Automatic annotation (TrEMBL), chain A:
Any single GO CC term annotated in Swiss-Prot or TrEMBL for this entry: proteasome core complex
Keyword Cell membrane carried by entry: no
This protein's UniProt keywords: Cytoplasm, Nucleus, Proteasome
Species, as recorded: Sinocyclocheilus anshuiensis
Designated name of the protein: Proteasome subunit beta
Listed PANTHER family: METALLOPROTEASE TLDD (PTHR32194), PROTEASOME SUBUNIT BETA TYPE-1 (PTHR32194:SF2)
Amino acid sequence: MEYLIGIQGPDFVLVAADNVAASSIIQMKHDYDKMFKLSEKILLLCVGEAGDTVQFAEYIQKNVQLYKMRNGYELSPAAAANFTRKNLADYLRSRTPYHVNLLLAGYDEADGPGLYYMDYLSALAKAPFAAHGYGAFLTLSILDRYYRPGDSALSLIRLNKRFILNLPSFTVRLIDKDGIHDMEKLPVADCSDCRAPGG
Amino acid sequence: MALQDVCGLHNPPLFPQWSAPLSRSFMPEDSTHLSGGGIHGEAFSTRLPGRGGLSPLEFYMPIAEYLTESPINFGQTSLSSAPTKLLEIDHLHPSLPSISAAADTRSSCSGLVACPASPKVLPIHSHLVGTTSGTSADCALWKRILARELRLYKLRHHRRLSTGGAAKLLSHMLHPFKGTELCVAATLCGWDGDDEKHEQPITEKHANTPTNQMTASNSSVVRSRSRICGPRVIYVCSDGLRLQGELFSVGSGSPYAYSILDSSVYWGMSVQEATEVAREAVYRATYRDAYSGNNVDLYHVTAKGWRRRERENLKEEYYREKERERARVAERNAEKKAILKSDDGEIV
């Protein structure tokens, strides 16, 4: 099952997605990237039905870039999230709905970091942390327990390492005022020495 | 249709709705091209099928929804058991990266073998080969449409469209049919770039990559970022899935082939080794899977284009294996007898 997670910190957003592209029982790829870069500081993470994810995410990606070309400035994360939601809602009410679950993470100069959770019924919510997939059942409770709004990036990365489930590896990215940074890919072996932060 | 007219048959076709006039086809912008240059679309809608007298230059494009009613739904009984078996290996020998693509040749229909010698690896142009799985008719049709579009691209832009571009084109052409019974699972294996002199940059990169799936991802990221030429294998499915990778196995026999491939394929294989592994994987899949069998086709794509190995009948391989097994069993029995005899000797 596919898995996405996002955690917002005081001045950054940390997102991670698993790397598996599966087709029924077979893992076709072990290094598939589920994150789509909408702009220098906005990432869209997309899981769901096989072709819909790429089609919808690329559609949103190209439209956000078109906005930038036409108007000279980029969409803010909040605007991009609402634009995505509107499109998803419109398609939901057509003959060809897209079955995708999304996380949109971005950093705005004025508003700071933002993480938006959207599901396939185009319900949008801005949240300090969010997850999609079966793994969400397990990780959301840990996040509820241990998340503190002022956590530093390092403690949140440690927290992230704890969640790794049956999936072999994850892509992790951090968005802050300087843009999108790739963190190292996390294989399962690395998390055995991590413990949850105290308190 | 054309042959019917040439032979002078005047029997109405069994399923008249199967061959509908062009004006109702789903690709209206190409109607002049398909009707042999004439603008006959309107005139035919009044003609009854089976009248005869149609020019052999015209041919009909089956309408998508009518294909489900056709009795000859080649190669597809249900969507869950796509009957073909094929695989691609993008083996990167440090000095000669290339792609090996292998497939079986059985087309089944409702539990019967409709054709034991169907080609499942179809060349699209000189440097692109596509393997097909799913409904044979759908695959053949979409391959031809893709070939036409790529040829038009080449004529308009004076260069070949890259494999990634071809995959994206195919994926977008199939997207309107999502949710219908169209079933195409194709793997496009192609060589991007102009000619052999660009091989040098690739060799440096691939020489550094160990046979580890973690760093394999790094190399694929490197390749996509620099947009240089080289081999590329992309899997396109009518669901809309589009994956680039180094190794794919598709079809009903694919799990059997995957296990052989995962154990034997490594970076830096030679062409002979890859051919052997591909052949073995297809053989094992045909052994276990009912919908795969008969022969194995092997294509090899390099900077110079694709090359085809002669079609090999796997029946021979099956009998050779039986012989080997028989020899092994005989040897084991002989050993057992020898041990028993020596035991008797000692006891007595």
